[in-house]
Structure formats: structure tokens, C-alpha cells
Design a protein that fits this description.
By secondary structure, the protein is an alpha/beta fold. The protein is about 30% helix and about 25% strand. Strand 14, helix 13 and strand 15 form a beta-alpha-beta unit. Helix 13 crosses helix 14. The longest helix has 14 residues.
């Protein structure tokens, strides 16, 4: 749609409505509604305002038909009809306006906002909202939260927001309810860190504000729909160390194994992975989980997928995840490459153990690795080092090897000596070919 065409059409008015109907609308909004030839909205909004519409106006219920709304609007505008879309509260706050603007272009719409229901809930409780994080689970049924869930879970983004903010205002849905949110906090060990308030049926005669609830109590309570949730911290939000945690911080297998990737090697390995906040990371042979869990902390907007074949190690990974307060981490019990086909393509991969499938695993990973992504492998045996290097050579990718051997001071009588740790080889490969590296080097000359 070009600019000349846009100037000729009647803009679609997206009007914010509260549950007291007409009382919530300005004269301008009511005038647009009275003149509309097509009115689109949810069932309740259409019922609340049907008396304010022209009797000849066509009404379309968008419940369960959101994807069709842009086409309804386009078709009406092509016939030079006046269109109104009724939305809840502020249509630009987790509302329909952004969705329509991205599909129709901003020039084709005009937004007449109302007070957001989140803002209204804050007003009822006298809470300033300028420093609140606004979140939404107003979507399809997400199901109850399960620890270690992947980003596809409907409560995943909310949990990330909860971990990173002190005050939150949350739009709920008939299925993603306050008690479900509270149960998620219980599952993640956050129940004692927050209090909850629920504002039910705002602007309706049955309006009720339930405030200052303990999370454990809210997890068992039913609430009237529609509602919004307010959460605030009752304890200081931790500011965890992101990189280089002491080895003793991790639960690990003793006496057989201990922590395979010690602090010094872990720090260099994570540095070589070139992580970003949004990185997707694979942790193959997770062991006690130290590398993957620190990667999860560094990739606050990303996710770590870990696999470990040893059941006892898997228990340690889960315990360490809970102790570190990490939510963007999924652990699978199994032996790579089984199950990797279900994971999204990674930006970085760490191999701490391969279960004897090293050459095939390297080939699979380099196929799946995103452009310019990094594969970092740790080895303590000459045989695995040789297999890795030979495989990378045969695949024609850019690689290098770093040998690390840390020594740590230990007391001896009234003095100290240096005790050497086992040497470790870091084999690193990037998703670029040797030919590409040579071409870049030549261009830099």
C-alpha cells in the first residue's frame, strides 16, 4: 500500500475500552464508534458497546480469529468503510495495536488509548508503576510450569522477567491464572522472595482487590476472571557472579570424579565460546553442569540445552541449577547425539564428554552450528585430542588448540607450594572454512 493510497483511505481506529463500557470512552472515541461501518472486538467488548453502534454496522468477533483481523480491515478499507477495533485498556501495552501496525502499516491505523488495566491495578493499590516491568501471559493455555522447561513454554518469558526485576505487573488469561503463576514461583524456589496482589474484574460491580498474599497461599486460591497480577520483592534481588564461580560452589560426584572442568579451564572455555546475551548454547556431556550453568547466566536472554548420560551427574546438574537460580537451562538425560535433532541450532557448543562418538558428533555439530558460531572441546587424553584435530582437518574448518595447565597454591607445613592440575587441551573450531579464513587474511594485508 503506497502513501497516496493510504491518504485516501479512512484510518482504522483502535479504541481502548475498560469493563465499565461507555463510561470509559471519550467523546471522540464514542463518535468514531457511532460512525463505524465495521466494528471488530472480543465478545465482551461488542456486548458492552453494542448500543453505541449504528444498527447497520457489521460486527465481527475476533475471539479465536486474530490472524484474520488484518484482512477484515484491508477488505473494509478497500471499500472505503469506517472501521473500529475495540481493545482492552491501552492497545499498545501488550495489546492488538502493535500486531495490526506490523501487518497493515502504522499509517493505516489510529490508536485511541485508554488506561491500561495494569496501570489501573497499580492505582487501586497506590503503587507507582514507572519502575514496574509490564509482562503478559495473556495467551493460549501454557500448562503448569515444569522446572527446566524450554523457551516455547508460555510462562518462560514471565519467569525471566521475574528473575530480573523487583516489581512486576502481569496481564493474565482465563487459563494462565494467578495461582498458576504462584505455583511457578514455588517450583523455582522464589515463593519467599515475593508477595502478590490480584485485581479482579476491574471497573465491574464485582471488582475486588486481594493484596499482600504469600505466594504459597496464592498457589492454592481461585481468582475471578478477568484479573491482573502485581508482584513485588520482599527480599533483595541477588546480583550473582556471572563467570568463574569457585569449584566448591558446585555439587559434584565424589570421590570417583569431582568437577571435570575446573575454574580456570571453565573461564577460558566460556571466553572462547564468544557468548552473547541471546546465545543458544549446547552443553554436551554436562557432568555437574558448571559450564552450561555459567553460560546460562551469561546468556540472560538466551538458553542452554544440556545432555548428560550419567544419572547421578544429572541429579547434581538439577541441584546446581536450583542453587544458582538459573531458569534458562534445559537438561536431557541421554547420550549425544540422541535428541539433539529436537534442539534449535546453536550459537556455541561445548563438549566436555562425547561417550565415544566424538568424530560423528563434531560433524553433526558443525552442520548445525550457526554462521560464525564456535565449538569448544575439552580433552585430557591424547587419543581424543588426536581424533578431534583429525576430524576438523578432514572437514576443512578453521581450528586451533590451547593447552592449559593451572597450578594452585597449597599449604605445606608453615609454607605454601604449587600443586599442578592435570593439563587440559581446548580444541576450538569456528563455523568458517579454512578457505574463508585465508581469504580474510589476504584482504587484511
Amino acid at each position: 500500500m503506497n502513501s497516496e493510497t493510504i491518504n485516501l483511505i479512512e484510518k482504522c481506529r483502535i479504541i481502548g475500552v475498560l469493563d465499565d463500557g461507555v463510561a470509559s470512552l471519550s467523546r471522540t472515541a464514542l463518535a468514531h464508534l457511532a460512525q463505524a461501518q465495521l466494528v471488530i472486538g472480543g465478545t465482551r467488548a461488542l456486548q458492552l458497546l453494542s448500543a453505541q453502534m449504528d444498527p447497520s454496522a457489521l460486527q465481527r468477533d475476533l475471539t479465536g480469529a486474530l490472524s484474520q483481523v488484518p484482512e477484515w480491515i484491508r477488505a473494509a478499507q478497500s471499500e472505503h468503510q469506517r472501521v473500529v477495533v475495540l481493545a482492552t485498556g491501552d492497545p499498545l501495552c501488550h495489546g492488538i495495536a502493535a500486531y495490526l501496525a506490523s501487518r497493515l502499516c502504522i499509517e493505516a491505523i489510529e490508536v485511541l488509548p485508554n488506561v491500561s488495566t495494569l496501570q489501573l491495578a497499580c492505582a487501586r493499590l497506590g503503587l507507582p508503576w514507572q519502575d514496574m516491568k509490564f509482562s503478559s501471559v495473556h495467551s493460549k493455555d501454557a500448562g503448569d510450569w515444569v522446572e527446566g522447561s524450554e523457551p516455547s513454554h508460555g510462562l518462560y518469558a514471565l519467569l525471566r522477567d521475574i528473575r530480573q526485576n523487583d516489581r512486576l505487573a502481569i496481564l493474565t488469561s482465563p487459563t494462565n491464572t494467578p495461582d498458576r503463576i504462584a505455583r511457578m514461583l514455588v517450583t523455582e524456589g522464589l515463593a519467599d522472595d515475593f508477595e502478590m496482589a490480584v485485581a479482579e474484574r476491574l471497573c465491574q460491580p464485582e471488582e475486588r482487590i486481594v493484596s499482600g498474599m504469600r505466594i504459597s497461599a496464592a498457589a492454592q486460591m481461585p481468582f475471578a476472571d478477568p484479573n491482573v497480577v502485581l508482584l513485588w520483592r520482599t527480599s533483595l534481588r541477588p546480583e550473582p557472579v556471572l563467570l568463574g564461580l569457585p569449584d566448591a560452589r558446585y555439587q559434584q560426584r565424589y570421590p570417583e570424579k569431582g568437577l571435570l572442568t575446573k575454574q580456570e579451564v571453565r573461564a577460558v572455555s566460556l571466553a572462547r565460546m564468544q557468548l552473547r546475551a541471546s546465545s543458544v548454547v549446547w552443553d554436551i556431556g554436562a557432568g555437574s553442569g558448571s559450564v552450561g550453568l555459567e553460560a546460562a547466566r551469561l546468556c540472560s536472554q538466551g538458553h542452554v540445552y544440556a545432555i548428560e548420560k550419567n544419572i547421578d551427574d544429572g541429579v547434581n546438574v538439577r541441584d546446581n541449577r536450583r542453587a544458582l537460580g538459573v531458569s534458562n537451562h534445559t537438561l536431557v538425560h541421554g547420550k549425544a547425539p540422541d535428541g539433539l535433532q529436537h534442539w534449535p541450532d546453536p550459537d556455541a557448543v561445548f563438549i566436555g564428554g562425547s561417550g565415544g562418538e566424538l568424530a560423528a558428533l563434531i560433524g553433526l555439530i558443525l552442520q548445525r552450528l550457526r554462521p560464525e558460531g564456535w565449538l569448544v572441546m575439552n580433552f585430557v587424553t591424547l587419543e581424543n585430542l588426536s581424533t578431534a584435530v583429525d576430524t576438523l582437518k578432514s572437514l576443512g574448518v578453521a581450528w586451533d588448540v590451547v593447552q592449559l595447565q593451572a597450578s594452585r597454591s597449597k599449604p605445606i607445613l608453615h609454607m605454601n607450594r604449587m600443586a599442578a592440575e592435570n593439563p587440559v587441551w581446548l580444541v576450538c573450531a569456528q563455523k568458517v572454512t579454512v578457505a574463508q579464513v585465508a581469504a580474510k587474511e589476504k584482504s587484511d594485508e
